[in-house]
Structures are given as structure tokens and as C-alpha cells.
Amino acid sequence: MAKHPELLAKYPNVEVLPSNGQVRCLFASIRNSETSRRKFVFDSDRLITMLVEAALAKLPYKERTVKTPMGLEYVGAEFCSKLVGVPIVRAGESMEKALSNIIQEVRIGKILIQRDEETALPVLIYEKMPRDIANRHVLLLDPMLATGGSAMAAVKVLLDHGVKEDHIIFVNLISCPEGIDAFCGAFPQIRVVTGEIDDCLDERKYICPGIGDFGDRYFGTD
Ligand code: PRP
Ligand code: URA
Ligand code: MG
User: Residues in domain Phosphoribosyltransferase (predicted)?
Assistant: First the structure.
């Protein structure tokens, strides 16, 4: 059974990546403190690709009929909305490549938010969005949802730009109950795709059992 069933029942917009042997191997690899940086990046990239694919499946599609080389009709679908990816810099930039590999020439906005190391409160430093972002669906990208402060500050920026709350999908690798409660309580219409929901936060507001500092491990600044 999925972990935290009561949390998932409370927030139907939260979807956890379906677990299987492969997904569990990848999470064991990236959570292991002995894993080399090269393998950490490679295995994180694989999981992030799965998460981005799961998020893209939530976007609106319309029916599309094509003719096959057999001269027969096939009824499939085509994507019918404009999209923008918005990573919360810096750790969120690790997710940009997976999105760009799947949707070529996808628009990318940027929000630079750093968590104050003493208070764990988010500090918004910079943001730049496509001019027509209000008419787009947004994949908000950040691998870590701890207190939820950074993701909520990023959503406020998007709403200030006129993005509709139900046009935002937050794509996230590791979350925890505190972060989901804060984020989904504040923005109940935003869909969340997360890789795994961990147990809790420690006194420094790090996710437990967690992964440590994702950005430091991914970019080699630890
Ligand atoms: C990390 C992470 C999130 C945030 C999560 O970024 O990538 O943005 O902390 O914590 P919260 O939910 O309590 O806000 P950090 O500010 O450490 O910067 P980094 O991207 O440079 O690692
Ligand atoms: N940021 C991280 O990288 N890891 C955590 O556990 C919390 C915030
Ligand atoms: Mg960090």
C-alpha cells in the first residue's frame, strides 16, 4: 500500500509516482550517501524523466485522427495547450533538461529562490517569465518540497503573472507531509506529481530520511 494514505485521501490532487522495482532501485541509489556524483546525477535524471512524463500526461489533449501507411484511420490525440517549464533555481534546474528533452523548444521561465540557511524561509531573488505565461499551462519544477515555503513563494509569482491556479502542475522528486499540507492547503487546485513522500522534517527543516541537500549533490557543491 502507498505510504501516507490519509494524506493522499485529503489531497486528491497529489499523485505519487507508481512504485516498482526499478523506481525503488533508483531511489535507493540517489538516497545512498556513498553514491558517486556521476551516478547520483544519472539516476536522478532517470527518475525526473519519469516524473515529467507523468506530469505531461495530466495536460489537456484533444482527439486527432491520422491515416496510417495501411490507408486506415487511427484515432489518437494531440496536445492542445501552450506550455512553459518554470524551474525554481538552483536545484529545479536539474529538471529542465528532462523537460527540454521531451518537449523540444519548450519555453522556460526562471524563478531564483534560496532558502535562508538559518531560518529555512524562502528569499525571492529573481524571476523572468514568458510574456504570455497567463495563457499557458505551467510545470513548476523543484526536486525538494520540505516546508513548502519555496514552492509557495514561486506559485505567488506565477499567480501575480496571471497564471490560473488549475493550470499549474508542481513536479517534485521528494516531498514530506509538512510540505504537502502547507502547499496543498494554500493552493488546493494545483496538481502535484511527487516521486516519494518521506516521513518528516528534522529541526533544520531537512527531509527525513531524505537525500541531504539535493542541489549540492547534483551540482557538486557539497
Ligand atoms: C531547496 C530545494 C527547494 C527548497 C525546499 O533549495 O531545492 O527549493 O530548498 O525547501 P522548502 O520547501 O523548505 O522551501 P535551496 O534554497 O536549498 O537552494 P538550492 O536550489 O541552491 O539547493
Ligand atoms: N533542500 C534540500 O535540498 N533538501 C532538504 O531536505 C530540504 C531542502
Ligand atoms: Mg540547497
Answer: 19-221
Question: pLDDT digit string (tens) for 37-68?
Answer: 999 999 999 999 999 999 999 999 999 999 99
Q: Calculate how far, in angstroms, residue 147's C-alpha sits from the geometric centre of ligand 1.
A: 9
| Structural domains of the chain, count | 1
**From 43, 115, 136, 142, active-site residue:** 115
Can you give the CATH number for the domain in which 156 is found? 3.40.50.2020
Interface confidence (ipTM) of the complex: 0.97
In a domain, 7, yes or no: no
Concerning whether 136 is annotated as a catalytic residue, the answer is no
CA–centroid distance, 36 to ligand 1, in Å, is 21
C-alpha closest to that of 153 among 206, 92, 90, 88: 88
The domain in which residue 99 lies consists of: 16-219
- Whether residue 5 lies inside any domain: the answer is no
201 lines ligand 1 (CB under 6 A): no
Tell me, yes or no, if 213 is annotated catalytic: yes
Which residue is it, cell 524562502?
Answer: 122
Q: What is the pTM of this model?
A: 0.96
**pLDDT per residue over 135-156, tens digit each?**
999 999 999 999 999 999 999 9
